[in-house]
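hey so i finally got around to running the thing on that chain from the lab meeting. sorry it took forever, my laptop kept dying and i had to restart like 3 times. anyway pasting the input first so we r on the same page abt which one it is
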Amino acid sequence: MLCNGNAVVMQSNNIGSVGDLTSTSGGCLSIYEEQGKWYTFTAGTTGSMGFTIVPTGATDINFAVWGPFTNQSLPATICAPLGAPIRCSFASAASTFAATGSYNTGMGSLAYSAPQFNPPGTVTSQPIGGNGWVPGINPAVGDVYLLYVSNATSNSTAATINWTGTGVVDCVILPVELLSFDAEAVQSHVDVKWTTGSEQNSAWFNVQRSADGISFFTIGRVNAAGHSNSAVDYLYKDLSPLPGLSYYRLEQVDVNSSTELSHMVPVFFKGGGALHVYPNPARDELNVTVELQNSGYYDWQVLDASGRTVLKGGKAFEAGTQRLVLALPGLEAGAYQLFLRQAGAECGRARFVKQ
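ok and heres what got predicted. didnt touch it at all, straight out
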């Protein structure tokens, strides 16, 4: 996160993650991410904003800018980007030098950007044979932008980013900078883990869970550090996870009661919900036992060999070992499969034969 207009020295030995960019979000860069770095910056005032990237020698520097995002957007919520960039240059070092007499690239050049500045919504890009320059932006105060700078030559040399224009590069001091957030099924529970890079006036975190990725419910609370300028690791154990696929996210609460939501992460939990059926083969009725992780309403369904539903129903159960008796009236002899689900998530299945 860039918080002022000072020059930035970009140097990276990383080859990049192929998951960061897609053919859509990469814009003119496509999926080509070489040695590069990601930055976020905020418009502190109205006024034009641009930058000049000065490479070391004949280094091929590419870049892209996404935005504007809403004020106080967290880096974790906007990176990797989903949509196409608003400014992008894939011009080669050779074509840039041929057009300008320099290997410098960027946005908002008086001589090589036409026009020098444009509204953010006016998308502009340079192809591989371009001059390496695109118009700068005229942002609104508080607009947040995402910048990626790539050393396509992959020679691990430095490049300097110098800011231009009348606008001010700033950053909003966020209550929490979330570095990472993940959830993992571990034996009989789910570990929800996250790390913050800094915290200002943070109060607590609500851990939220969803069966469908749409409706979330708070399942736990973890007190925050309050004030921190170094990394803090957090862990919450969900001792009663939903069977099957579910989703987790964080709600960060400040001391002034304002909130921020994290991205959501999926978890598949097998749990202890295996169905046991007897007698098997069965005649008039089938006994079912299951170890349930959660109380609530469960749906059951019986499918024949062709996948057709021949019986179905539902019942409310308490957590723990439960027993269900299914009557099999008029069911033809043959092989069947029984499924048990809660809120659409499968928590057990078993095969049986009807005599």
